[in-house]
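Appendix B, example 12.
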Amino acid sequence: MTKLSVNVNKIATLRNARGGNIPNVLKVTLNCESFGAEGITVHPRPDERHIRYADVYELRPAVSTEFNIEGYPSEKFLDMVLKVKPTQVTLVPDAHDVITSNAGWDTKNNFDFLSKVVDLCKSANIRTSIFVEPDLEIVEYAAKTGADRIELYTEPYAVRYPQDKEDAIKPFVEAAEHARGLGLGVNAGHDLSLENLRFLHERIPFLSEVSIGHCLICDALYLGLRETIKQYKECLK
């Protein structure tokens, strides 16, 4: 079964726009779980423009499903991860000033660095996932680091889906099957939506997890959070 992990960064963005604590990130997180989400994802960035490091510490003891922390493995980030001990850490190669994640790791040229980070996290019994694009060599080097999973960066799929969904999905299917053959679990995330998620899942039914934030929260403005989570989960059946 493919798990739905809800990224609550956009809730924090809305809260931070006015100051105070409305909407309450913890309350929304608990609601997501009660409405059926099988995981919660956060991506704290150095400037804390959405999820703050303090949020991560507050959420950890309250989250009863899988807790996934994404981010660039800086010293500060890794210190937090080792203290919080989430279910999973997803290593993302974000520059400090990007609006949102926009590329996967070059696992070949960053192999030594990633291998050390993976060893550090796995020594703390934290499942590790590396954010990658659907390139077979990149997937191979991700496997060589000792990571447990990859997360496929799916924005290119989402962009091409309206024009030619078969062409859009092809490299992702190939990369996912290659990863599975190498013993890696496969996650996916970025710009997945009610429009394109079902087809992705039909073609890669062995996905372990999809992490969805922006589109899901936008849909919730119209459908409500409970109904939105229900509809996303329907896409994963």
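The longest helix spans residues 165-181. The first strand starts at residue 3 and ends at 7.
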